[in-house]
Design a protein that fits this description.
The protein is an all-alpha fold. It is built from twelve helices and no strands. It has helices at 2-27, 45-50, 54-87, 93-101, 108-119, 128-153, 157-164, 169-198, 201-207, 214-224, 229-252, 254-259. It is globular.
């Protein structure tokens, strides 16, 4: 009896967590133009409308470019920082690590307002550069977390053996360290891409009237219209995120990397 209750409780928790997604999924097939759960014959018209919505298409283009650049930038910054923290001893090491992890504990509204006050006087609002810099700040903790996890759980004897045999630091990193931490890099880059693509709060502050990302375009769409097209787009984004995570999990073992 206790085992049945335990399973029932787990099922109830999953249903509670997935209920908003399930509701959005059914709304996206509404044949009417009401953004509400209605028992009507299903229709794919809202998915078809996505292909002709230029605002969403342009927003998706901006978000994809921004997220791709952000993922590359956080790799270029996060990997050296992680190597320095994991492999070297220096003064204020803990402070450096805390500095790069701190965006995880600062509210997005506070970060967005602060970035707006800094970016506006120097003309970075409404630009690709401004959005990329802002997204880099909020996604770099993830690449550092996954890379540090890979570095701290890896066997360093291979690196020490390479140095004993005469390999320099660059050769040791390229031939030994990089293959070891590669799953962590991919996991962090994928997380940075997804978070950057979906970021809405900070993008609302930085985008202005210039480069508008897809989440900002969705927010503006809801200000004037309320039809199931926004639900259809939400389902598409959820499916894309799930597919990306599943592909990485199958190819790289994302669950193993995240669990250390």
């Amino acid at each position: 009896m206790l085992k049945v209750l335990h399973r029932a409780m787990i099922v109830a928790i999953y249903l509670f967590l997935l209920a908003p997604i399930i509701v959005v999924f059914f709304i996206s097939f509404n044949s009417s133009n009401r953004l509400a759960l209605a028992f009507e014959p299903p229709s794919l018209q809202w998915y078809a409308n996505l292909l002709s919505n230029q605002g969403f298409i342009e927003g998706a283009r901006v978000s994809f470019i921004t997220a791709s650049i952000t993922a590359i930038v956080v790799l270029l910054i996060g990997v050296p920082v992680s190597l320095a923290v994991a492999r070297y001893r220096f003064k204020f090491k803990g402070a450096v690590e805390a500095l790069f992890i701190s965006p995880l504990v600062v509210p997005s509204v506070v970060l967005g307002l602060g970035l707006l006050l800094v970016f506006q006087p120097i003309g970075l609002t409404g630009t690709f550069a401004g959005i990329v810099i802002a997204h880099t700040g909020i996604t770099i903790p993830y690449i550092i977390r996954t890379t540090l996890m890979s570095l701290t759980t890896a066997d360093v004897s291979c690196e020490e053996a390479a140095k004993v045999l005469g390999a320099n630091s660059w050769t040791t990193f390229r031939r030994i360290t990089l293959p070891i931490i590669f799953p962590g890099l991919i996991a962090g880059a994928v997380m940075a891409f997804i978070i950057s693509f979906d970021e809405a709060v900070i993008s609302l502050f930085i985008a202005g009237s210039g480069r508008v990302t897809l989440p900002v375009e969705m927010f503006r769409y809801l200000q004037y219209r309320s039809d199931p097209e926004i639900a259809a787009l939400s389902v598409v984004l959820i499916l894309i995120s799930v597919i990306i995570v599943l592909v990485v999990e199958r190819a790289m073992g994302l669950r193993k990397v995240m669990n250390g």
